[in-house]
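dumping this here before i forget
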Amino acid sequence: MMQEKDKKTTTDDSHHEENQYVPAEDSHLRKETPHHILFEERQYMGYNRYSMLRRMVMAIFCFLAYYWQEEGENHGHLFFLVGMSILVISGLMLFVLHLHTRVYQGNIIIDGLWTSRKVKIDLNSIVSAEKSTYDSSFYQPVYNLHRKGTIRFYTSGNDAVKITDKDGLVYLIGTQRATELEKVILNQIQEKINFKN
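structure:
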């Protein structure tokens, strides 16, 4: 009887060992390691101050028209509704992603609105990168705009990083963290040069 009990205990112990929990620190080694992000920035549509200023001017005009309406005029309420709608839309646009910039080892990936096509820039073809000022007359948000030999990405602000590839094509990427983005790209260029040497 004692022998049968010992045998059963031994069987239970071996079964327990076979179904032991694998700690997270061991299990993650079996998964594929994701690409490391060297730089990441999200820019939202509603923070463009020039577009915001235009919307505020339109809203104020609507509220003034509502205030100065004459007695008995029914269309004054329409001005009020339009003004409120402009304010609500302006608030919602603060959460609309326009530009999502990520720098990985070897490439830059830019995407944004769900309707925008993802752009991938091969850093192996980039020969220079420098902090620049975004030069535009209207400062409208643009995505993948090809103009005068330059591909532009811009949401808001005045700063940008200008990068040039070996074929002379220029990318102008608007950013709120121009110094950091420039440094990351220059490090990538330098690593490529050191690898070749």
